[in-house]
Design goal:
With 233 residues, the chain is α/β, with parallel strands linked by helices. The chain has helices spanning 3-10, 20-31, 46-62, 73-82, 118-127, 159-168, 206-211, and strands spanning 39-42, 67-70, 96-99, 103-104, 110-111, 130-136, 150-154, 171-176, 193-199, 216-219, 221-222, 228-232. The strands form three sheets. It has a five-stranded parallel β-sheet with strand order 2-1-3-6-12, with helices on both faces. Bound molecules: ribulose-5-phosphate. Residues 14, 43-47, 99-102, 112-118, 121 line the site of ribulose-5-phosphate.
Length: 233
């Protein structure tokens, strides 16, 4: 199967690769920064797939030696298909991590998690020496929550309790994320539900408030992280 078809197949949560040319440009820029011996964390989403593809070209043409720590099983499978060597967070710490985002504000706060992998994405970013967030300019917003909900990964038995607690801290809309193309709710790789939430006001404390609810595994809100944002116009 051609890699483009693999890309489309993997992106079950996204029918098309929006702004593909811009994403390819930023993917090439990122891949060009890889050096021999790098340990690289890879998030998820179409920009990450495109960057892995560019990295694989360098690995095969230039005999570049590097290892990738994937944020999801899908990304891990893609690495296998592209012949990119992998390692794990048990064995190594990433020199740098690259990832996409759904929204980025002027202080580089982020909403992520349209693909549902925000727990492992956050773990990679926290474990990394340096992080690059690759976006096209459509992802830049004046205030977070303009276009995308904040995804919250929830332990299944805690669903009702968490919904109630989210309302108490100001959630104005809460929706259980549906499964792709079938009945029922989507499950993360860890077997949890995702609640897509809207808040009228997103401030610096919200990420911690979400995390402190028993039953919340992680949220897609990234406030105050030390990330380098690369924007393709
Ligand atoms: C997945 C993510 C992605 O990085 C985010 O959704 C951006 O995706 P894309 O690169 O396809 O625009 O957070 O959980």
């Amino acid at each position: 199967m051609k890699w483009e078809n693999q890309l489309i197949n993997h992106l079950q949560w996204s029918d098309t690769i929006i702004n593909r040319e811009n994403k390819e440009r930023v993917a090439r820029e990122m891949a060009a920064m890889a050096k021999d011996g790098d340990i690289i964390g890879a998030g998820s989403g179409s920009t990450v797939y495109l960057t892995l593809f560019e990295l694989s070209k360098r690995i095969h043409k230039e005999k570049l030696h590097l290892e990738v720590i994937p944020a999801s099983q899908e990304i891990s499978i893609t690495c296998v298909q592209l012949g990119i060597p992998q390692t794990t967070l048990w064995e190594k710490r990433p020199d740098w991590t690259f990832d996409g985002a759904d929204e980025v504000d002027s202080d580089h706060n982020l909403i992520k998690g349209r693909g549902g992998a925000m727990f492992k994405e956050k773990l990679l970013i926290k474990s990394s020496v340096k992080t690059f967030i690759l976006i096209d300019s459509s992802k830049l917003v004046n205030s977070l929550g303009s276009h995308f909900p904040i995804p919250v990964e929830v332990f299944p038995a805690a669903l009702s309790y968490v919904e109630h607690e989210l309302q108490k801290i100001g959630a104005s809309e809460i929706a259980l994320r549906p499964a792709h193309g079938k009945d029922g709710a989507i499950l993360t790789e860890s077997g949890n539900f995702i609640l897509d939430t809207h808040f009228n006001y997103i401030d610096a404390s919200l990420e911690q408030q979400l995390k402190s609810i028993t039953g919340v595994i992680e949220s897609g809100l990234f406030i105050g992280y030390d990330v380098n944002v690369i924007v393709s116009p």
